[in-house]
Amino acid sequence: MLTCKRPDRHCPGLVCGYPLPCPHHTAAIDLVPEPPTITIPTTARAAWRSRRKLIEIAETLKDRDHE
Length: 67
Hints:
Blueprint: E1 28-30, E2 37-39, H1 44-49, H2 51-65
Antiparallel strand pairs: 1-2
């Protein structure tokens, strides 16, 4: 069984170890709705710290949609 190798969400010094796909560290793409949705598990604090990266991802996906 494959397990998640990301840092544990409660104790970053430990490995998560959750069976893959890990609901805490795996992005999910749902292609059924129009437009498709991407779910990225994160905490509010982590989202705030990485907001620039999340904006870059959104802009990249938006640009691909217009091609």
